[in-house]
Amino acid sequence: MGTFNFEELPVSVELQRAFARWFAEKCAPGGGWDSLPSSKAMWFRLTAFGRFCAEQDSPPQLLADITPALWNRWRMRRPEGIHGYSQVTSLGGFFRRHGELSEPTRSAMARRLPLVTSTVRALAPDEFEEVRAAARRMFRSAHLRIRTNTEHLKRWREGSFEHQSRDWLLGEALDSLASTGYVPYMLRESGTKRTIHRYVAVLGGEAPQYTWMRLFLTRSEAYALAVLLVVEFGLNATVVSEMRAPRALQDGGSGGFPIYRLELEKRRRGAGRHFETRNVPDTGADTPGRLISKALEATSHARAFVAAADSTLDFLLIWRNAQPGPRNVSPVAPFGIGLTKNAADSWLRETGLTGAPLQRLRKTVNVLHRREPGQNSQDTHDAVYVLPEPQVQQASVPIIAEGAESALAHARHTVLRAQLADTTSPGSLETPTAACCGYKNSPFSAQGTGCRASFLMCTACPNARIHPKHHPRLAYLYLALASLRSVLDDEIWAADWVNPFMRLEDLKRRLGDQVWATALAGVSSTDRTTIGSLLEGQYDL
To answer: 219-233 and 343-351 helices cross at what angle (nearest 10)?
Structure first.
């Protein structure tokens, strides 16, 4: 629960009361805020806006004094980047829903801002592998440790050990740990806890690795699990932190393997949330479902302890706090829930890595590995995450170059390259479709050997000349190719006839409708015979 004193805002009483009233509406059930961080974030923005107002030569006293000019000055004073963008859009959304402000002011607050490009960069391939390997090592060790001690506890509860034997004493210590969060202890005069001596020997010591770490994850191990969940599912840190413990579906899979339902909830800017469910089967080692199975097993004792205290706290990421005390903000001591602000620092210290926040990891997974949106729209995924990423840009260079070369090659085959002329060129050689001015220098055959290309390629050759006497024959060829299109399969048409057809369409466009109509009217029987032989492959000079 949070307390907000609006009398502390450096604004007039009227503005204090209006801001407080609007703030209370948002905090009420159905108002749009259902978490303390949302309220705190807006309180900080209101405080910053109040200081800004107080700095003005004529500070606003009434709601009417919050004018478009004042709002625009506030907007221009915000820092560049995502933080300034968030301040303007969030506070504007908070203010403009209230009709007590003037319509021009609310319109100014609703004005769209240029989308801020993310400066977060994806991890390089070697960085990504290093982070994933470190998380796997840490969580695997924790999972095996907890599994081994859980099996020992199970056997103790079944009565498998001789009374007062070392194994029995260890099982009794584990039973106390599971039910109270501590191995059996005695209180010193200073108020600190000390493990009862007879259990110290069987546990191996009093340090965390000998006591509570036997059944519970540490803060860093919970963070390692969060890293693996991001790697597998591309979720953001808040979604992972607030993820409820997945449930196995009753029908399961046909092979007897469990299928888990992940209920995911992502906060949206402003009011509203995004809800999503995913069914994840555990079909074997190294599958996403197997990670869920191990996560449930590694957190089972911590989750059972917290759920016994408060059944609404059914979260997945629950870990044992190394130093429970007054500063522990968890509702159920000595356990922590979700990801705390210093969890990443703790994990980095223990792994020796230099830095890999979950935001960078999520971008790496969704942009470079999964290559699909992770609880974003496709437009947001492309504009905010994919396009600004340098690795994507670098990988796109050869693809774009290849596409450009392909487009150029396609254009060369589908765009008319023969030259239009008014009269016959001296020394040219007539073909069924054009006049050739470079038979020995064909771009389609070895130099000096003579052209061996089809006569249909004349329209794609820069050595060819098309003058008015060729127009009727080429117009008729255009109609003949169009008729073939109606009787041939699309694949055959595309492979054999589409390129010359497209070049003739280009010719038609260049000549214009009137010249083309004249050409069609001038088609002779010789033209029809020549084109028929050409299409049947029987024409010879």
So the answer is: 90
